[in-house]
Amino acid sequence: MWQGIISQYKNYLDCINNKTPVVTINEGNTPLVYSHNLSKLIGAEVYLKYEGLNPTGSFKDRGMTVAISKAKEDKSKAVICASTGNTSASASAYAAKAGLKSIVLVPEGAIALGKLSQALIHGAIVLQVKGNFDDALNMVREISSKYPITLVNSINPYRLEGQKTGAFEICDCLGGAPDFQVMPVGNAGNITAYWKGYKEYREKGKIKVLPKMLGFQAAGAAPIVKGHIIRKPKTIATAIRIGNPASWRRAQEARDESGGLIDMVSDKEILSAYKFLAQKEGVFVEPASAASVAGLFKLVKKGYFSRIRPKPSLGCPDAGRTTRIVCILTGHGLKDPDMVLATIKKPKVIKADIKAVLKEIGY
Ligand code: AN7
Fold first, then answer.
1. Which residues have CB under 8 Å from 211's CB, separation 6+?
2. In angstroms, rounded to a whole number, what is the distance separating the alpha carbons of residues 304 and 300?
3. Nearest CA residue ID for atom 9, ligand 1
4. Is the dihedral of CA 321, 317, 173, 336 positive or negative?
């Protein structure tokens, strides 16, 4: 039986020892879904890593199981985070399971309804800050440095340790690393974690080559692309509405060491990919997660993959192999139900009459 990412990958998690009390809700082991549409369009094998199927509906659970287990091992009594929503949902759930107090600071009115509901029902102290995510992060950094409260944002190195297991699962599933990994970038912890995961799997001899990391920010919240802090980040993808990412430098390292890129996509491109995933692939994700597929479309339009594909040459063991691309779909669509109603027409109201139904459905 699958018992979560710590149990599965403890040999690759140096911070876990025999005394670590493992707090898990059986996160990880998420599906890698083959996309016929995207594969055909690009002439590659394209897979969707559906992280929305983690216990609290996002990839944050991979990191939170490690961060909360270590907080418990270190006899912490309380955890704190700033969040655009998913971190707070995950921290609250894992803290509840561990019996720890959780405190979350979120930007007022700027997090999706599902995520706010999660933090509340799991019993966190939820504070809405009159400011943005970056303001909230500055405050929790300071509070956790002065009081005995454990910070569980991705500045906490245990978070990235857990999140790197996403890379392990992809390699285990494909029997090697993909050629490209596409993902959204907000606070830039996840791109840092995945890159660490791939590099460690190569060091341990589990894979031979590393993927190129392709990260996408929302155009109104693209500090890494623009090269400066964005004071007032704006995007409908609230999860990645971040103007000063904590792992900025390490995201650039992942980009540069892998020979990849970090680019941006507009809200319009995000919503188009959001609908594409739901309506052509049957996969419902939140807008921030659709940024990865929006980015993939952008690169396809530019001819990126045809340009960059290595020419098969004699003596190359991979000669002629199809390019493999994995898009990380970081969070579930149910997190943000308001976004559907803002995007799609509300359903018609009709009389309770079969004739009225038949008329509407064209029979
Ligand atoms: C669905 O919850 O930052 O680049 O506070 O929820 O590792 O920050 C969420 C980020 C992508 C970006 N997709 O990941 C938070 C928070 C979803 C997210 C990201 C987030 P990072």
1. 177, 178, 179, 180, 181, 198, 258, 260, 326
2. 6
3. 239
4. negative
User: Is the CB–ligand 1 distance for residue 184 below 6 Å?
Assistant: yes
Q: How far does residue 350's CA lie from ligand 1's centre (Å)?
A: 40
Q: Which residues contact 326 (CB under 8 A, 6 or more apart)?
A: 32, 46, 47, 48, 49, 170, 174, 178, 180, 181, 182, 211
Ligand 1 atom showing the smallest separation from residue 183 Cα: 11
Per-residue model confidence (pLDDT) at position 306: 80
Cβ–Cβ under 8 Å, residues 106 and 130: no
DSSP E strands in the chain: the ranges are 32-34, 45-50, 78-82, 101-107, 125-129, 150-151, 180-184, 212-218, 261-265, 324-329
pTM score, two decimals? 0.96
36 — pLDDT class (breaks 50, 70, 90): very high
CA–CA distance, 234 with 353 (Å, rounded to integer): 45
> Residue whose CA is closest, atom 18 of ligand 1?
239
**Probe residue for ligand 1, chosen from 62, 187, 249 as the CB with the greatest number of ligand atoms within 8 Å:** 187
| Res 321: pLDDT | 77
Q: Is the CB of 52 under 6 A from ligand 1?
A: no
Give 86 Cα–ligand 1 centroid separation in angstroms.
Answer: 7
Nearest to 162 by CA among 224, 219, 94, 240: 94
Please report the pLDDT score of residue 37 as a whole number: 97
Three-class secondary structure of residue 231 per DSSP? coil
Q: Is the pLDDT of residue 320 over 90?
A: no
Question: Residue 272: its pLDDT value, please?
Answer: 98
Residue 238 CA to ligand 1 center (angstroms) comes to 9
What letters, b where the CB count within 10 A reaches 16 and e where it falls short, cover 131-164?
Answer: ebbbebbeebeeebeeeebbbbbbbbebbbbbbb
